[in-house]
Design goal:
- It is built from 12 helices and no strands.
- It is mostly helical.
- The chain folds into 2 domains: 196 residues, no CATH class; 88 residues, no CATH class.
- Helix 1 runs antiparallel to helix 3, helix 3 packs across helix 11 and helix 10 crosses helix 11.
- The model has no long low-confidence stretch (mean pLDDT 86).
């Protein structure tokens, strides 16, 4: 099997040789044109021959560079449009995930039936195949209009495409119960609830989830009775002391301060500061690179107490405006593949290859059916 890195290097050098050969040929053709075509010959007769010859060579070199730069610019613009298309499809994923989550709340409360959903875990499968899901309506212009308003009205410090656990019903339910806010880290879901009046969906009873948990208890009890050795854990001398949770909070800082010398504590603080600064600078470098593409006459930078934050906010505003302008084009692309789970812009090339959700769904369904049989019920999921 060929080494992919070797092939990549080979292709790179082949392209470079081809490019260099083209530049040389283009240069020679330009010089020949300037030296032989009558319009140029007539023009250059009014100048000193030596200066005209030097200019011809200079001009040919510059023309090659202009053409090369224009080609690079076109390729760069194509890459940027591709990146913006990824952002557009992140927006479409947000739209459809919220519809699926609404359906999950209603389905769990046994308010609706869904053709592709048999158990709760099926929602995780369709979360990862959202554009192929038949149980939610296709994206329409009203959806895009609402999401456009969301992009314009949501503060720029809240990125719209940094959330991924869209169907974590239990986590959302717990967060709402404990903090009063189910979607603190999901600004789109929060915005949707406010404007669509769906905030009560999480308050609906989880009838289906409770039924599944009942069957899982039956299965576990039976398995424990048949295979008690699986449930016997080593029980060394009882030790009720807490585990050392050195990842959480300020444990490390307090430990170093308490058990090391002041000099080592200063070293620790400097290391933390350097790490935070490096992480911050990485973000700043990215934002500055994007900032360079923004037109000179663009609106003034977003106000903030820190210039790094101001740059980040301006970049996010510019990105959103580009996404909004491209949404109609992305919508046309979406409609061409309507109803299919396709390789949309931004979809990971590994998404299908390493998709484990189908096998997990199959396992849970088999487990629930086994539990129903144990309970003297039909071997199906109609409960």
């Amino acid at each position: 099997m060929a080494d992919s890195n070797t092939d990549s290097h080979k292709n790179y050098y082949t392209n470079q040789v081809t490019k260099q050969k083209w530049k040389e040929e283009f240069y020679k053709k330009t010089v020949e044109q300037l030296q032989t075509e009558e319009r140029f010959v007539t023009y250059f007769k009014q100048f000193n021959p030596k200066s005209a010859e030097e200019y011809i060579k200079y001009y040919a070199t510059r023309k090659v560079n202009w053409f090369e730069s224009a080609t690079d610019l076109r390729n760069w613009e194509k890459r940027k449009v591709k990146e913006r298309m990824k952002d557009c499809f992140s927006a479409f994923i947000d739209i459809q995930q919220r519809k699926l989550f609404n359906a999950q709340c209603l389905w769990r409360a046994e308010k609706i039936k869904l053709q592709d959903i048999e158990i709760c875990y099926d929602f995780k499968y369709w979360e990862n195949h959202i554009f192929g899901c038949r149980d939610i309506s296709p994206i329409n212009e009203e959806d895009i209009e609402l999401y456009t308003r969301f992009l314009r009205e949501t503060p720029y410090n809240l990125q719209f495409d940094d959330y991924h656990d869209y169907q974590e019903y239990d986590d959302f339910k717990t967060a709402k119960r404990e903090t009063g806010s189910a979607f603190e880290d999901n600004s789109w879901y929060s915005y949707y609830d406010i404007h669509e009046g769906t905030g009560y969906y999480l308050d609906l009873p989880d009838i289906r989830g409770q039924k599944e948990e009942k069957y899982m208890d039956i299965y576990r009890d039976d398995d424990r009775a048949k295979n008690p050795e699986k449930y016997v854990y080593p029980n060394p001398k009882a030790d009720n002391r807490p585990s050392l949770d050195w990842y959480g909070g300020d444990f490390m800082a307090n430990f170093v301060k308490t058990h090391e010398t002041p000099a080592f504590y200063r070293m620790y603080l400097q290391d933390v500061k350097d790490s935070e600064l490096n992480e911050l600078n990485e973000k700043v470098d990215y934002n500055l690179a994007v900032l360079e593409e923004i037109p000179i006459d663009y609106l003034a930078i977003e106000p903030a107490d820190d210039w790094r934050t101001a740059v980040a906010l301006t970049v996010e505003r510019y990105r959103r405006e580009n996404v909004i302008s491209l949404l109609p084009e992305a919508f046309e692309m979406y409609l061409k593949h309507l109803g299919h789970d396709w390789n949309y812009p931004g979809k990971s090339e590994y998404a299908d290859r390493y998709d484990s959700y189908k096998s997990i769904c199959k396992h849970w369904k088999e487990t629930l059916i086994s539990a129903r049989v144990l309970n003297g019920e039909p071997a199906d999921l109609n409960f």
